[in-house]
Design goal:
This protein is an alpha+beta fold. The chain is built from 26 helices and 27 strands.
Length: about 700
């Protein structure tokens, strides 16, 4: 509202040379208590009020005294195009209004302001009351005294209770009749599903708050779901309600748009903006529906045209490109002569309600995946240049969403590297779903990946099932052993990579995804391509950023740091203080580790658990480990040059000592060392080693 809409236009004016008698005549004739004073050029130079005239007469002035001697020259002027809210709180009793040319346009007094505001509030209250009566949901408002202060037509219809029987009366009997019992006025909550007569209602309660600490009552919103078997609806919070009805409209969970007979949008609430994704729903307020012929707003034009053509109620279900399902409901509000006065459009997002049906299946699937995956406790140990390069590549690619293919033999830590990429990406707070393509049977892999609709095949869950790809939407999917994926699924995976869209088994509706793919394999995919076991186009889609993890034997600098890392971990886990002897460290570093890091972890945990001494020496190593060292050719650690004969004897003596201490059997130790037990006995005696503790020493 602008100032010029509430001001007194073309007021009677005075000139400075006129007398106070002239001023009194102006006041009497116009019924005003002030008059602007103009100079000879018609510009405002002051204002003269009745109070100022009386003061002047008291001070000794006469009715012949000129206006210029008495008028107030220090005046405030404002522009007629200023908004009403900019001046409504100014601490003055009257304002002089100028037009764009700086000439007098009118006068605004405090009394005029109050009268205009009162009229505007009455008109607004009437409009809001009409709109509230047209809402499909029943609305019951209870004031701070606990009395029912509003009971709209929809509430009468849904409950079968006439408004005259409850308005102005305590709400307790009404709540009991609805099956609610005692409610807490200060709580915003979903009260549940209730049967009232032959109707099934869902009821939501919201407080009416003047501010955070002052509750003035509460509102119950009733929604009829009897005819919508697939809708289990609950209305979200109705916030910031106040004693004016506009608060109720703005706080409705459903979107509400009010359109006049000419197609102009009179009101849009915040929920309409939320559902349609608008930052500011006011941007369409005041526009005509013919200007909104595109996007989701085009449905307003369709509803307007159908109702103006004679329909009283229009329902329209809409599926958006984002996979949301919306219901538009438009109803006509009768005006004068029975014609359509206004159209109230109700917009409801039932996407969330549809998800309720799948909640149990989703929770079960998510729990299954949460148990199956666990992010690494710490960062990857990388001391060798090769492993450092792999980690640097992983951290670099984590900042983007490119597809990654991790290659390397089994047990090198491909899963750890994939989790590292996810943990340092923008998707870190979203799901990380690991799928082992070789561990899931081929007959189940497709339904596990893509999910299925209800009744898609024999044995399927009745309500259908979400796929792992759909559960991971927003996060990262790690496809381990990608080389084992069946060819028929490779085609569908290629479509996921290209379009980020899937179809559930037995479904026809496309489901939009937002996932990042990280694949891993220990196989030669190029060889599989040549053998027609892997699609070449899928390979190039996966191999956008390749990262190779070499086997542990090619990065021996990582062996001892890994040993230390896992020794500390298992000591902490089992409450021990085990440490490795120097010779044991040399043996571990010299081993080829065919099982890579996985084998190393298993060995260290076994040593921590089984070794009874605090220091783990070579003779504590498992027999199969020592045998493997012997088969692959153990390399002694040489710290200085000594004569060959001396070195040979020292090495032979140490190996015999270790074998005897470990096996306590001449025959077993001889087998490990590759000599007969008699030769072993002779050499042991030659080096002065004790053999009495061996179980078969007596026989020799």
């Amino acid at each position: 509202m602008l100032v010029k809409q509430v001001m007194l236009e073309n007021p009677q004016t005075l000139y400075p040379w006129q007398t106070l008698a002239d001023a009194c005549e102006v006041y009497r004739r116009q019924g005003v208590n002030c008059a602007p004073v103009l100079d000879g050029d018609g510009r405002v130079i002051g204002i003269l009020t009745v109070f100022q005239v009386l003061q002047a007469l008291q001070r000794g002035a006469s009715f012949d005294t000129s206006v210029g001697q008495v008028m107030e020259r220090d005046i405030m002027t404002i522009d007629e195009d200023m908004h009403f809210n900019e001046v409504s709180n100014l601490p003055i009793d009257r304002l002089v209004i100028l037009n764009r040319q700086g000439r007098l346009a009118g006068v605004l007094t405090r009394i005029d302001l109050i009268n205009k505001v009162h009229s505007a509030l009455e008109a607004t209250e009437y409009k809001l009351a009409v709109m509230l009566q047209s809402v499909h949901n029943g609305i019951i408002a209870v004031d701070a005294r606990g009395d029912v202060c509003h009971f709209n037509a929809a509430a009468e219809k849904l409950t079968g209770i006439p408004a005259v029987k409850v308005l102005g009366r305590p709400a307790g009997p009404l709540l009991k009749q609805l099956g609610l019992g005692q409610v807490n006025p200060g709580v915003d909550s979903f009260l549940g599903r209730f049967t009232v007569g032959d109707r099934v209602l869902i009821i939501r309660q919201s407080p009416i708050q003047k501010d955070v600490d002052q509750v003035q009552g509460f509102v119950l919103v009733l929604q009829d779901i009897s005819e919508l078997e697939d809708i289990s609806s609950q209305l979200d919070s109705v916030r910031n309600l106040n004693k004016e009805l506009v608060g109720v409209i703005q706080s409705c969970y459903d979107g509400i748009v009010v359109i006049d007979r000419q197609g102009n949008i009179e009101r849009v609430n915040a929920s309409y903006g939320r559902i349609t994704g608008m930052d500011s729903p006011e941007e369409i307020q005041g526009k005509n529906v013919t200007e909104l012929a595109s996007g989701q707003h085009k449905h307003l034009l369709q509803i307007y045209n159908e109702i103006m053509s004679g329909k009283s109620l229009v329902n329209m279900a809409v599926h958006t490109e984002d996979g949301e399902e919306l219901i538009f409901s438009g109803s006509a509000v009768a005006g004068e002569g029975g014609q359509v006065g206004r159209i109230v459009v109700n917009l409801r997002d039932i996407t969330e309600l549809n998800r309720f049906k799948e909640e149990a299946a989703r929770a079960s699937a998510e729990l299954k995946e949460l148990r199956a995956r666990r992010l690494a406790d710490g960062e990857i140990v990388a001391e060798s240049p090769l492993m450092r390069r792999a980690v640097e590549q992983a951290l670099r690619v984590a900042t983007v969403d490119s597809t990654v293919l991790i290659t390397g033999p089994s047990g090198v830590g491909k899963e750890k590297l994939a989790k590292l990429i996810h943990r340092h990406s923008s998707r870190a707070d979203k799901p990380f779903i690991e799928i082992n393509c070789g561990a899931i049977p081929e007959s189940l892999l497709e339904s596990e990946l893509f999910g299925y609709e209800k009744g898609a095949f024999t044995g399927a869950q009745r309500e259908g099932k979400l796929g792992l790809l759909e559960i991971a939407s927003g996060g990262t999917v790690f496809l381990d052993e990608i080389g084992d994926m069946p060819l028929n699924l490779q085609v569908k995976l290629l479509r996921v990579l290209q379009e980020q869209i899937i179809y559930r088994v037995g479904g026809r509706r496309p489901i939009k995804l937002d996932i990042r793919i990280i694949a891993a394999t220990n196989k030669d995919l190029k060889r599989l391509i040549a053998e027609k076991k892997f699609r070449e186009d899928l390979y190039y889609r996966l191999n956008v950023v390749p990262i190779s993890i070499p086997p542990l034997k090619e990065r021996r600098e990582d062996i001892l740091p890994l040993v230390t890392h896992f020794l500390n971990r298992f000591n902490a886990r089992h409450g021990t203080k085990k440490r490795l002897g120097m010779e044991t460290c040399r043996l571990l570093e010299g081993y080829s580790w065919p099982g890579n890091v996985r084998e190393l972890i298993n060995l260290i945990e076994r040593l921590v658990i089984m070794c009874e001494e605090e220091v783990i020496e070579p003779h504590h190593l498992p027999g199969e480990f020592v045998e493997a060292l012997g088969r692959e050719g153990w390399r002694p650690q040489i710290s200085e040059i000594v004569p060959l004969q001396e070195a040979r004897e020292a090495t032979e003596k140490e190996l015999i000592r270790m074998a005897l201490e470990k096996y306590h059997s001449l025959r077993r130790a001889g087998q490990v060392l590759g000599i007969s037990h008699s030769t072993l006995l002779r050499k042991a005696r030659q080096y002065g080693l004790v053999v009495q503790n061996c179980t078969d020493a007596v026989q020799n």
